[in-house]
Specification:
This protein is an alpha/beta fold and about 375 residues long. The protein has 13 helices and 9 strands. The protein has helices at about 5-20, 25-35, 45-55, 60-80, 135-150, 170-180, 210-225, 250-260, 270-280, 280-285, 305-315, 340-345, 355-360, and strands at about 155-160, 165, 190-195, 195-205, 230-235, 240, 290-295, 320-325, 350. Helix 2 (about 25-35) packs antiparallel against helix 3.
Length: about 375
Amino acid sequence: MRPDLSLRVARLGRFLRREGLPVALSDEIDAGRALALLPGSDREELRLVLRSALRIRREDWERFDALLEAFLSERARRRRRVARPAGRGAALGRGRADTAPEGAGGADRPASGAPAYSPVALLVKGAPRDCSERELGEMERVLSRLARRLARRRSRRLVPTRGPGRPDPRRSLRHALASGGELVAFARRTRARDEPRLVFLCDTSGSMDAHARFLLAFAVALRRVARATEVFAFNTSLVRITPSLGRAPLAATLERVREAVPGWSGGTRIGASLSEFVAGHLQGRVGARTVVVILSDGLDRGDPRALASAMSAIRERAGKVVWLNPLLSDPRYQPTARGMAAALPYVHDFLPAHDLASLERLLPRLAA
């Protein structure tokens, strides 16, 4: 990291801590690395990168935005604006945002300012960032508790039981007739355990790099308590990774998955990958009680017609289609990217998935 950029990030971190926002030194390092590769000086992009890399909590977003604006404005007032070409890491500390030149990251953003594909998404590790082994262990315990809650859910369907339950007069009468008309004991029924049938399709392309491991960890936790769960990864092609999900600790499992997926953190062809799933796995692994969960930001560079066709086939066969998009954590996000717009008509539930709270809110939806 350039010394001048490091100093600016350190000053920002100190300012935020003084104002009560919990910014760690490791977060400042992540922010500096991201900003060093920022392909332009757009103020909006700078704000989103810093918000993610500094791991600003969602409830603090509005306050952070105001503090960042105050920090940048104060710096602008304290020195003359120096004209220079937009370059790497040039954004932090500039008086106001310059328009990024075409080809320097601005070409992929819509004029409306809505999030779209950007190389910056490849760099942000902040939400959630790469975790230490201890932090992954804690996350594994939390995710496992969430997964067990889903696996223990009871359906409305009643089944015979030898334990406590509701009296079943009809079965009781049949048993009495079989024993000469003597009612020895009441037969009982209880609500059946409704084990979820889940298929996860996880986007591991570059724009999902900050979220893929976190979301795969949730899929791994569910697979361990709900054995009818299948997990696939995709970027430019599809890979079934269910056989790689053993009983090893989460950190080791995720590393094994990463090695098993070609092109991790590379390009993305969502439509082609889902078409591959439809052709090779839909008939055998998806039925009327299956919930198909797609984990992706929907930033597809392929033909949106291929994505729409694959989604139509999945919707027709599955009990429910859930699309989890981390970009939904930003209240200004609109699903205007071509791929996301093509997929949405075939989605039952379109939900955020950027932290543990969002995954907890997801659990009731994972039922066909």
